[in-house]
Amino acid sequence: MKRVILLVVLISSFTVAFAKKITISVSDFQFTAKSVNAKVGDTIIWVWKTGTHTTTSTTIPAGAVTWNKPIDATHKRFMYILKKAGTYNYRCNFHFSLGMVGKIVVSQSLTAGLGSFTVSEDDSKATLNWKTQSSKDVSYFSVQRSTDGDNFQEIARVRADMLNQYKFIDNYNVSDKYVYYQLEMVDTKDNHQLSEIQMFTQNVRTAKLITSLSPNPISKPGHLMLQFNADNEGKMLVQLYNQTGIFITQTEMTAVKGLNNGHFHMGDLAPGTYYIVCTLGALKEKHTIVVR
């Protein structure tokens, strides 16, 4: 009995020792990162940056504890320990209709010990390197790619070897500046473990700032969603003008490195053609907006 108790204590200590703390920033109007991979025992920490928000669970694994916490200037942090494997979906109660939602995918740690996953540049191509502690019971690794950091597709399968060191070069053909990768390790019993999500920055010729504006045309009231690229943390200034060049209003959007989501409340505008000027660092772009 004492040996069994000692073994349980040692396993619990091992799990706690290798548990991670994962930070998600909360700002107007996004969780960053929107999608996170984690393991059972990890802790998620939501940290306030700007605005008034909540982090509120919507669908979570059976047996997990629901949550509904404010994230604002008074409540700047909330911590949640992941105790069940599965997918945790959550939202901001105030801004979920504007796309402010998040996802945490939690897996059990497999005995092979997936770790040390990095993505670097090799001859202008994304080179993925990773290691495992052993190759025992590993069937294969699913290499997966995304252009938004949320929706991933498998692009290759790599079989396990005895060296426990792996390399994969992605001969991609995508025009997006930021490309995201994750690994899914699958063992011989069809158990799965996900790696952390890693971002790769392509050296594109044209630095594109705005990647998406929706909806356009806009119906009243004028709510415009923007997706934009950022090489560093900062603020993007968005200014609205009418067709004759008269300034109407402006807003600032929080930017983190990678692909960002922002919301611009343009107000109750008369039908017509307008344009916005977006400025982030040295980049400036002008886009036409139609209001119906």
The CATH homologous superfamily of the largest domain is called Immunoglobulins
Through-space gap between termini = 75 Å
* Overall CATH architecture of the largest domain: Sandwich
**CATH topology descriptor of the largest domain:** Immunoglobulin-like
Radius of gyration: 22 Å
The strands making up the biggest β-sheet line up spatially as 3-9-8-5-6
Dominant shape:
globular
- Average the pLDDT over all residues and give the rounded result: 90
Percent helix range? under 10%
Q: Hey, roughly how much beta strand do the residues contain?
A: over 45%
What structural category arises from helix and sheet content? Answer: mainly beta
Number of folding domains? 3
What is the CATH C-level name of the largest domain? Mainly Beta
Mind explaining what this structure looks like?
The chain is mainly β. It folds into three domains: 89 residues, Cupredoxins -  blue copper proteins (Immunoglobulin-like); 96 residues, Immunoglobulins (Immunoglobulin-like, Sandwich), CATH 2.60.40.10; 82 residues, Immunoglobulin-like. 5% of the residues lie in helices and 57% in strands. The strands form six sheets. Strands 3-9-8-5-6 form a five-stranded mixed beta sheet, with no helix packed on it. Strands 12, 13, 15, 16 and 17 form a five-stranded antiparallel beta sheet that branches. The longest helix has 16 residues. The radius of gyration is 22 Å and the shape is globular. The N terminus is likely disordered.
Short description:
This protein is mainly β.
Compile the SSE list and pairings:
Layout: H1 2-17, E1 21-27, E2 30-32, E3 35-39, E4 43-48, E5 53-59, E6 68-71, E7 77-81, E8 86-91, E9 101-107, E10 114-122, E11 125-132, E12 138-146, E13 153-159, E14 165-170, E15 178-187, E16 192-194, E17 198-201, E18 210-214, E19 222-230, E20 234-242, E21 247-255, E22 258-267, E23 272-280, E24 283-291
Parallel strand pairs: 1-4, 3-9
Antiparallel strand pairs: 1-2, 4-7, 5-6, 5-8, 8-9, 10-11, 11-14, 12-13, 12-15, 15-16, 15-17, 18-19, 19-22, 20-21, 20-23, 23-24
